[in-house]
Every structure is written in structure tokens, then in C-alpha cells.
Please model this.
Amino acid sequence: MQYPEAFFRSVLFWGKVKQELISNSTIIVAGVGGLGCFVSQLLVRAGIGKLILIDNDMVSESDLNRQILYTTKDIGESKVKIAAQKLNAINKFSKVIPLKITIEDKKSFLKNPAFAEYTGIADCLDNYESRLIIQNLLKDEIFMVHGGVENDYGQLTTIIKNSTVLLQDIYADYKMELYPIPVIPQSVSVIATFMTHEIINNILGMPQLLNQLLIMELSDFSIFKIALKK
Amino acid sequence: MIKVKFYTLLRLLIKKAEVEIEVDKIKIRDLLRLSQEAAGVKFFHKLLEDDGSMKTGTIILLNGKHISHIDNLDTIARKGDVVSLFPPGGGG
Model:
């Protein structure tokens, strides 16, 4: 397969075989907010085959500190619509499907033919109720890279139903205490970058965060891994 | 010896990554009390409600397993165990 010049530098690093695996993959990005904007953009720049963007929200001014696909002129517009436009402008290679639906609307989610086949899910959601819903929809062997961010720290892991701990094993009955959540652009971009790398690791069949929770704290540039158990 | 490790906001508050408690066997509830003494910084209010129950905004893992799935604060930690404490990032 002949790849666009846009991927030349990546192919120099990871080679044509890996580029082809990435270009044959479909990732559902659940939530196109802070994490979702970065993850989507990085995946398109990496040459992902297809992205399915899910979000029901509109762009608001308070999103602009961290949601890099949006600008002031997008305020009030549908996030998935604007995100798809911006992503399509990066390159024409990735097919981007914007779906303005809620995660809670499981029926429209499951009936949508876009979900017939996908390689994995990027959990870029902003609350645990929605995260549990999308995890429960996962097929047994499909990966979901889960990320969460707050203040200047965040965490991520890979969830695969039949082989790793699940979100409820890690978080139990965790409830978020603050809303809106305090968060800065730097922590969002780092966690999203790590998530994108782990998504690509999963696509290439070498996930690094199975039963491992990676915690990143920007305050003193610390990264930790905690081994997780069921 | 049991290691108690602090992450994210707790680590910033306590200004230590971990404390080591020299006991063979202890309930998490009592381990937290000893850890607070060892750390020299009060952090109970971040983990526990006034009535002593666990707050829902914090995670306590014993060897990578949430204590809610064992015996909550009555979970027994033993020599060699690692307890991890942190409020996770909830946003997306």
C-alpha cells in the first residue's frame, strides 16, 4: 500500500507493517472533550483508518483551555461536527464519523451500523457512570483504553473484558466530588498522548498497561505504575 | 513492614511518596492512623468521613485490589503488603 507523504516520518520509525495495522483499524472515541480532542487528532496524524466520534455536547467557551480542536468561532456548535471538520482538514486518509448521541442512549448506540466492527475504544469520558456503560458494551476481546484527568494529574489503563480488571475493580463506588473539574491543558495533553500511545500499542498487539494503572503527576514530573488485581 | 504509598493530591499534601509501617498484621483503618502519624501530616479528612466511613472520592488499593472488594476498612494488611492511596482524575 502506498501511504500519503503525511505519514512518511512515522513509517520511517515504525515501518510499513505497523502503519498498515494502524490504517486498517477503527477506534471509537467516546467523548470528544479534552482527552478526546487530543486523542482524535493524534490518531488521525498517526494514520488511523477510521474514527467514530461520540459526543452529544456543544462547544462552550470554558472548553477552550484544553479542547484543542475548538476555537472561539465554534462556540455553540456540535462538538462532533466541528471535530470531524478539523480532523478531515489534517489529512484525507482517515475516515471520520461524527455521531451526536449520548453514551446513555444505548439503543441508538447499539443499533448504529458504525458499531458493527471496531478495533478498540478510547474512553475519553468525563464521568464514571458513562464509562461503566461503555465498558459494559465492550465485546470480550476488544480493548478499551481508559483515561481520566484532573488538576495536574491523571491515570490510564487498558481494559479487556476477558483478561484484565474492570473499571469497577479499580474504582469500586468512586464518585467524583467536584464539578466542574479543575484541569489544565498540560495534564490533558500528557494523559491523552499516553492514551494514544497505548491505543497504538493495543492495535499493534503489544499493550503495556494490562492490569497496570499508570499514574502521571505533572507537579514534579512523576510517573508511577500500580499493578492491579481482580 | 507494610508500605503505604501516596499518589496525586495526597502525595502533594503529605510531601512524601510513601511511609513504611513496622507491623505484621493490621486493619487498614489502623494502618491509616499509623501512616498519618508517620507522615506527620493530617490526611484522614481526605479519605474518611467524620463518621469514620470511607469517602467515595478516594481509592485505597491493597496490593492492587480495591479494599471495597475485600472488607473495606476492616481489610487486613500483612507484612510485605503495599497499600496505595489516591484520589483519581475523573475528567475527560
Summary: The longest strand of chain B covers residues 2-6.
